[in-house]
Amino acid sequence: MAAERTYVDFVPSHDLLEDNHKHTLVVNLTGFKKEHLRLQIDKSGRLRVSGERPLEGGQWRRFRKEFQVPEGCDAGGIRARFDKDGVLHVTMPRLTPLDLEDDPKAAADAEAAQHAAAAAEEKKRHEAVEEDARKRHAGREDGHARDQGEGARQAASAGRQAYGFARDRSRSGMVRALLLAVAVALVGVAGLYARYRWMDQSAETAPAGGAIVGLSDY
């Protein structure tokens, strides 16, 4: 006589994912095999997923879970796939794929991407404006420095010209002073010569006796 089965019931963890083309029911069934599972859909659009597998000591582990098929899905196109990690994927395709305008999440993601792109473009433009302002400021500083250098060179040139003019005037003054000194000296020499000639003529005047009288110093 076969031993009576005893069951251990549990509720598997699950999640419902969706995109523009389908809904996907994901059920975690670790330890189960494909032959342990059963999927049914009734006329009211309810999806029933159930399964049981043996445990030690004549016990069986089992579950039963019903899901409402989302509106707009193609019940005839529902497919199930059980992977080696013990995860059941039930795909429920949409009758009409959604556009971005009909999908709030997709529309929000697209809008966020547009805002991010606009912010990046604005940041790039702002950086370009700042770089252009820095270049113009640097150019003005260079021009000011060149103007100051040119002014300094002009001032130095004017100083050198003034110094040359003063030096030329100093030389002209020295020449005139030298010429004046030479002229004075010549005048003095001429006066002495005339005086000497005058005195010499007086000395040559002889007395009537014909003796020559010598001159002496007092």
UniProtKB/TrEMBL annotation:
Query: Which spans are transmembrane here?
Result: 177-196
Q: Which SUPFAM superfamilies does this chain map to?
A: HSP20-like chaperones (SSF49764)
Principal subcellular localization: membrane
Q: What compartments host this protein?
A: Cell membrane
Entry's InterPro entries?
A: A-crystallin/Hsp20_dom, HSP20-like_chaperone
Family annotation (Pfam families): HSP20
Question: GO CC annotation: what is one?
Answer: plasma membrane
Keyword Cytoplasm in record: no
Ranges for domain SHSP: 5-109
Q: Which family does it belong to?
A: Belongs to the small heat shock protein (HSP20) family.
Q: What is this protein called?
A: SHSP domain-containing protein
The organism named in the record is: Hordeum vulgare subsp. vulgare (Domesticated barley)
